[in-house]
Amino acid sequence: AQTVTQSQPEMSVQEAETVTLSCTYDTSESDYYLFWYKQPPSRQMILVIRQEAYKQQNATENRFSVNFQKAAKSFSLKISDSQLGDAAMYFCASLGQGGSEKLVFGKGTKLTVNP
Amino acid sequence: NAGVTQTPKFQVLKTGQSMTLQCAQDMNHEYMSWYRQDPGMGLRLIHYSVGAGITDQGEVPNGYNVSRSTTEDFPLRLLSAAPSQTSVYFCASSRYVGHQNTEAFFGQGTRLTVV
Question: Mean pLDDT over all residues of chain B?
């Protein structure tokens, strides 16, 4: 079974500072995807960043980057130069391939950005 | 592009009533799924489908039925609504696992209240 754990229900960061959101996962699949989704107050789910498990290089998207530690089953999200618009719920998710096609989410981390 | 369209956006039901939440996607995605989002619980998978005619249960399937007669549509049926089904429901679709650049596209969500 796939599980995704986000141990930080809430985090806060000062504008322009850097914050890291934690995520650990467990899967029996040999190949899988990992994602971070952002959910602002509008409720829309927005893909922030994606990591293919077979790729050793950490994914980056502008101010967002991940630290993917496959052996430790860890997938943290780093937000650099935080902006007020980054305030949202952030969800970590895993998608297995070739056996379990379920997209499974963690419980989320609420990020507050202080001006 | 419409993407994933969910209807209705809001609904109030009385206990025992039945209803169908509609979900349609125009991206020719094979994979579709339904989630419910409750405070502090993240997104929990209700049912999912890897293609027309194929459905399977997720983490919290009780009280819900689905069918997938076409690639485009994946309706979620509440057979006899209960207050415990008060939640925000999301439909998502994605290209089948194994394709590069896989990501899930979400509808806008349906806020359902059962009184």
Answer: 91
